[in-house]
């Protein structure tokens, strides 16, 4: 049966491969997975390209989809059709951007040809070593006169909720409780409480114009809560694709053998009581992002956001700083 599964995976048009550390007693090994639309094969071994060849064979004619680990680009696999995981491509692009700017620009901003402003939030991480709120304020300060603003949170995730709330405070005129996190038990990491309210407090000067947010399937955790605060307050509209639905708020602890486990301690719910865990946020304006868009550098999300802002006519339709 196993060899039949291996033979079936070899005939697949596309195979997704990945590997992770695996302990066998006191020995270190690697667990590999190769999966197609219909077949999945697991195997253990070392972390060399020979495992790929052993499973897929030397004459594999499909497309190998993987991360950027060197085993997938070994000389023995030269000539194979390959596709790198989009998440890793985006992560590598972010790394190159940081290196290019030497970390100086964490909030790239520009005035678009449409006259609307754009800010790309690159991180909410408290470990950046920079005053992110001050840098965000500087970016926003250059676009305060723009008649509409787009904030790009695609591909963004973990970080400090308190930092995100302070940034969101630049768009609200009144305090807004945007959610409550419930805990099954009292934990010291959560102040021994059974629930915690999440609130945005206004910070002057408040940007008064209409606001559109960009999100996608890689928008998660702190970035999702930033979206919730501004969407549920009625301050902004969301454009793009359904977000990841991973609110997180994780607790981390060590395991024997240098392992690490993380688990979510809280059930974050929006003001209407709905959970975002495993559900995410559904955009007001859904946009399909295609392989052709990626190949040509076309950004349909940004295009749709600008069209939405340009169609915004008389005040009061959406996005004014009334809260």
Molecular structure report:
This protein is α/β, with parallel strands linked by helices and 323 residues long. 25% of the residues lie in helices and 27% in strands. It contains eight helices and 16 strands.
Please outline the helices and strands.
Elements: H1 2-10, E1 14-24, E2 27-35, E3 40-45, H2 49-56, E4 63-66, E5 81-84, H3 86-101, E6 109-111, E7 117-120, H4 132-141, E8 149-152, H5 161-168, E9 176-183, E10 195-200, E11 211-215, H6 222-232, E12 236-240, E13 250-255, E14 259-264, E15 266-270, E16 285-286, H7 291-296, H8 300-311
Parallel strand pairs: 1-4, 4-5, 7-8, 8-11, 11-12, 12-16
Antiparallel strand pairs: 1-2, 2-3, 6-7, 9-10, 9-15, 13-14
Helix pairs in contact: 4-5, 5-6
Structural class: alpha/beta
- Average pLDDT works out at 86
Order of helices and strands: HEEEHEEHEEHEHEEEHEEEEEHH
Count the strands?
16
Stated plainly, the CATH topology of the largest domain is called 2-enoyl-CoA Hydratase, Chain A, domain 1
Helix percent reads 10-25%
């Amino acid at each position: 049966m196993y060899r039949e599964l291996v033979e079936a995976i070899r005939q697949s048009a596309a195979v997704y491969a990945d590997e992770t550390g695996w302990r066998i007693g006191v020995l270190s090994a690697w667990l590999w997975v190769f999966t197609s639309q219909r077949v999945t094969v697991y195997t253990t071994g070392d972390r060399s390209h020979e495992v790929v060849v052993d499973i897929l064979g030397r004459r594999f004619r499909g497309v190998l989809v993987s991360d950027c680990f060197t085993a997938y680009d070994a000389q023995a696999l030269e000539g194979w059709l390959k596709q790198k995981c989009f998440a890793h491509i985006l992560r590598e692009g972010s790394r190159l951007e940081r290196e290019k700017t030497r970390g100086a620009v964490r909030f790239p901003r520009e005035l678009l040809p449409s006259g609307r402003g754009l800010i790309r939030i690159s991180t909410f991480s408290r470990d950046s070593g920079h005053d992110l709120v001050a840098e965000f304020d500087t970016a926003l300060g250059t676009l305060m006169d723009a008649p509409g603003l787009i904030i790009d949170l695609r591909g963004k995730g973990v970080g400090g909720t308190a930092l995100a709330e302070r940034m969101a405070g630049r768009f609200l005129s009144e305090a807004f409780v945007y959610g409550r996190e419930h805990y099954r038990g009292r934990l010291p990491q959560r102040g021994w409480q059974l629930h915690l309210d999440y609130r945005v407090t206004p910070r002057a000067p408040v940007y008064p114009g209409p606001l559109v947010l960009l999100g996608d399937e890689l928008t998660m955790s702190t970035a999702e809560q930033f979206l919730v605060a501004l969407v549920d307050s009625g301050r902004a509209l969301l454009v793009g694709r359904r977000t990841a639905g991973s609110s997180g708020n994780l607790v981390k602890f060590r395991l024997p053998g240098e392992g690490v486990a993380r688990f979510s301690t809280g059930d974050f719910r929006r003001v209407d009581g709905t959970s975002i865990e495993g559900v995410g946020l559904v955009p007001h304006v859904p946009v399909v992002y295609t392989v052709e868009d990626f190949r040509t550098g076309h950004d349909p999300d940004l295009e749709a956001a600008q069209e939405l802002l340009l169609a915004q006519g008389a005040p009061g339709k959406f996005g004014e700083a009334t809260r």
